[in-house]
Design goal:
single chain; mainly alpha; 10 helices; NDUFAF4; NADH dehydrogenase [ubiquinone] 1 alpha subcomplex assembly factor 4
């Protein structure tokens, strides 16, 4: 019942609101508009205009002079590559936080240990890089560098099934990590 009573009221309100809208719109459009302000030209001085025209004219004498004259270079060569070489494609801090190492330093740790394991043992590496012995030990135990043999192994078997390649790679790495004495004892 409430909707039936309010419907005629809304219709009447709409008619009153829209009453004479066309005439009001025409009056607004036809109203005299104020002319826009005319600005003086920026360059009013004739001397300035002439000097600007001279600037834009091509001077052949200057062109010939520049072609004849060689530029003198400085003694030191200019830098060819302005961007610092980032082999990891992200910013690496120069001084890492205490008990932390950067990606490049962790790769150096692993490489040093692989080249000379007697000289670069856990104690020497932890002193050199200011790391805890446990973290260096874990780094050497659980991470390894991607060697050339591994790369050739993966490229050779890429045509085969991916699962089979992964299983062979895991078996091969497990055999490398187990010392020969343990393998001989099991036989």
């Amino acid at each position: 019942m409430g909707a039936a009573v309010s419907y005629p009221y809304t219709q009447l309100r709409r008619v009153l609101r829209r009453y004479n809208a066309q005439n009001r719109a025409l009056k607004f459009i036809e109203k005299e508009k104020l002319p826009s302000r005319s600005y003086e030209p920026e360059i009013s001085d004739p001397k300035i205009r002439e000097s600007i025209k001279e600037l834009y004219v091509k001077n052949k004498q200057l062109d010939d002079y520049l072609k004849k004259e060689k530029q003198s270079s400085s003694k030191r060569p200019l830098p060819v590559k302005r961007i610092r070489d980032n082999s990891f494609l992200f910013y690496e801090p120069k001084i890492p936080q205490p008990n932390c190492c950067t990606l490049s330093s962790s790769l150096e740790i692993i490489a040093k240990h692989l080249k000379e394991p007697n000289k670069w043992n856990v104690d020497a590496l932890s002193e050199e890089y200011n790391l805890q012995k446990d973290s260096v030990k874990n780094l050497l135990m659980y991470y390894s560098l991607f060697t050339r043999e591994d790369f050739q192994f993966i490229n050779k078997d890429r045509k085969e099934n991916e699962e089979q390649v992964a299983l062979e790679f895991v078996k091969r790495t497990r055999l490398e990590k187990i010392p020969l004495k343990q393998i001989e004892d099991k036989k």
